[in-house]
């Protein structure tokens, strides 16, 4: 929790205002029993009825002021809660977006969403409302106990005996409940992940009639979440019931002891009334302290989860102050990464094209992840115009090199907004040109709202081929210096792909094309074949056919011997 104090310190003025409301409210609570005593003993007991309107008005104004001060306290404590939540959530989200690819392999979307949504809110709530309320309980209990002892030491005996016992029970409740909060936080993330996977993959789920399986899978998670919360509630109820019972006993013992003292003429009825009011002011803190400690324990569990994400330092660091280079001349020199990429070297001159082929799992996508620094190689260097990309700004890299992945992600927005998202400037002519080159213009114009058509979450209202064409257009509208197509035409029909391949030749940029189809890479200036992360063949289309190796075998399997002879 201490690591997040800096977020709370941003709201010092709000803490001061809320604390002022808290203190003034307690002062009113301590003053009201005196008015009650005067009303009972002097106005009623001594029959000074002329003072009754003044005393009643004073009592009314006291309760009114107590309400005003309570409003000030809670209003500003809620503002603190929202402010801290916003600050922690923003910091966490910013940190997550700065991480490299390895971070997202280790942390699932469900975990991260739970940290951002649920745990940030728990932390904010504890630093705002709960912290102020906890301080109020402590100060209120001390002040009321001292006031009661000053009023009558004898009548304070039940309080002095039972209040520490209730405090101990509340502490034990917090200790026992604490062990459930970590588990509940983890289970919340798993349940969110399970639900998100089933909903995101609803087409696949329905296509394979897996609805019952997904229902059972979610039900198992939901049942575990339910069981944990039931166990937590049982713990809360057991201790809360005991605390409530002791508070009622304390209240009853005070009245009983007061009645005995009145009969012995040791105290007045007004003194008993004021003492009972003080005791009543001590009951609610004891019944609430258990809940407050539980919320603080929940916040501590959330803080640990958030900190576990924040202490992951997989940020992509730029080693020098290079903003950009003149030419995008890409060179891989003896690049290796874990057991996936092994000693890979190649060079792509500006305006040239490189084709990459290989079986699934051969390392094609990982090899290209180094270009935009989603991953960094363990050894070897990747340079652009002779400068190590670790010394180049990420902004330059990612604006100069545009990726189109096979697994297309589109936002729940219009086609136009998907194309221009993140761009500072654009023109309608550039958008139309990008749509035309990507073979998407005709189908976009056929839609009722054309480019303003809403495509649904992840583009669910479009076919696979349509989504791929829009993803290509999104890259082209940025006028990249290097266009990387990572098996991004796999959903296109042969005719559309051939037309797109023709359009590629007119693009004034370097091109890297990853594909399983020979037809996608055969016109590239160089083609490399990957196997187990190593380059096993390289050359032009004709050179590779002449080798009669793996490329040749793939060509024969896809296009046949006759085409090869031609």
Gyration radius (Cα, Å) is 35 Å
Alpha-beta classification: alpha/beta
Q: According to CATH, what is the topology of the largest domain? A: ABC transporter transmembrane region fold
Main sheet: strands, sense, barrel: 6 strands, mixed
Q: In the residues, how many domains can be counted?
A: 2
Helix-strand pattern: HHHHHHHHHEEEHEEHEHHHHEHEHEEHH
CA-based shape: elongated
User: In the CATH hierarchy, what is the class of the largest domain?
Assistant: Mainly Alpha
For the biggest β-sheet, the strand order reads: 6-7-8-3-9-10
How far the N terminus sits from the C terminus, by CA atoms, comes to 72 Å
What is the typical, i.e. mean, pLDDT? 87
The CATH homologous superfamily of the largest domain corresponds to ABC transporter type 1, transmembrane domain
Q: Which bin fits the share of residues in helices?
A: 55-70%
| Number of distinct beta strands | 10
Strand content is 5-15%
Number of helices: 19
- Low-confidence parts, pLDDT < 50 over ≥5 residues? none
CATH architecture title of the largest domain:
Up-down Bundle
Protein name: ABC transporter ATP-binding protein
GO molecular function: ABC-type transporter activity; ATP binding; ATP hydrolysis activity; ATPase-coupled lipid transmembrane transporter activity
Domain ABC transmembrane type-1: 16-298
Subcellular location: Cell membrane
């Amino acid at each position: 929790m201490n690591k997040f104090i800096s977020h709370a310190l941003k709201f010092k003025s709000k803490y001061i205002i809320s604390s002022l409301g808290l203190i003034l409210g307690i002062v009113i609570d301590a003053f009201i029993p005196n008015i009650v005593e005067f009303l009972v003993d002097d106005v009623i007991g001594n029959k000074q009825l002329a003072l009754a309107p003044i005393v009643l008005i004073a009592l009314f104004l006291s309760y009114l002021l107590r309400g005003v001060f309570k409003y000030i306290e809670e209003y500003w404590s809620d503002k603190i809660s929202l402010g801290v939540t916003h600050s922690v959530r923003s910091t966490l989200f910013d940190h997550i977006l700065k991480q490299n690819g390895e971070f997202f392999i280790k942390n699932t979307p469900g975990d991260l969403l739970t940290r951002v949504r649920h745990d940030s809110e728990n932390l904010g709530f504890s630093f705002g409302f709960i912290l102020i309320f906890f301080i109020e309980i402590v100060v209120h209990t001390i002040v009321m106990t001292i006031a009661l002892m000053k009023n009558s030491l004898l009548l304070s005996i039940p309080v002095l005996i039972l209040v520490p016992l209730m405090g101990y029970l509340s502490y034990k409740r917090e200790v026992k409940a604490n062990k459930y909060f970590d588990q509940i936080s983890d289970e919340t993330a798993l349940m969110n992940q399970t639900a998100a996977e089933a909903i995101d993959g609803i087409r696949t789920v329905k296509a394979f009639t897996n609805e019952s399986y997904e229902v059972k899978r979610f039900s198992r998670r939901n049942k575990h979440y339910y069981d944990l919360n039931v166990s937590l509630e049982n713990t809360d109820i057991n201790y809360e019931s005991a605390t409530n019972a002791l508070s009622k006993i304390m209240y009853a013992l005070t009245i009983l002891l007061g009645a005995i003292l009145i009969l012995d003429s040791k105290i007045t009825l007004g003194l008993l009334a004021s003492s009972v009011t003080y005791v009543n002011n001590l009951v609610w803190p004891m019944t609430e302290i258990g809940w407050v400690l539980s919320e603080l324990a929940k916040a501590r569990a959330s803080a640990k989860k958030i900190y576990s994400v924040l202490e992951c330092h997989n940020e992509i660091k730029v080693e020098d102050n290079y903003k950009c280079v003149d030419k995008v001349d890409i060179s891989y020199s003896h690049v290796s990464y874990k057991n996936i990429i092994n000693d890979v070297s190649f060079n792509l001159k500006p305006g040239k094209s490189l084709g990459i082929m290989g079986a699934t799992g051969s390392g094609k996508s990982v090899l290209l992840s180094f270009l935009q620094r989603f991953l960094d190689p363990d050894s070897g260097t990747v340079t652009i115009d002779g400068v190590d990309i670790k010394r180049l700004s990420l902004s330059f890299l990612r604006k100069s090199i545009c990726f189109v992945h096979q697994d297309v992600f589109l936002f729940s927005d219009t086609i136009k907004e998907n194309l221009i998202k993140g761009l500072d400037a654009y023109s309608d002519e550039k958008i139309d040109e990008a749509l035309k080159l990507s073979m998407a213009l005709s189908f976009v114009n056929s839609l009722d709202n054309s480019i303003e058509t809403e495509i649904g979450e992840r583009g669910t209202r479009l076919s696979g081929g349509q989504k791929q064409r829009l993803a290509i257009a999104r890259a082209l509208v940025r006028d990249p210096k290097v266009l990387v197509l990572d098996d991004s035409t796999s959903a296109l029909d042969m005719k559309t792909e051939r037309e797109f391949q023709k359009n590629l030749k007119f693009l004034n940029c370097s091109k890297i094309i990853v594909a399983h189809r020979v037809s996608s890479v055969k016109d590239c200036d160089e083609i490399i074949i990957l196997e187990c992360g190593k380059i096993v063949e390289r050359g032009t289309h004709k050179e590779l056919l002449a080798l009669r190796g793996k490329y040749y075998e793939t060509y024969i399997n896809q296009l046949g011997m006759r085409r090869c002879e031609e």
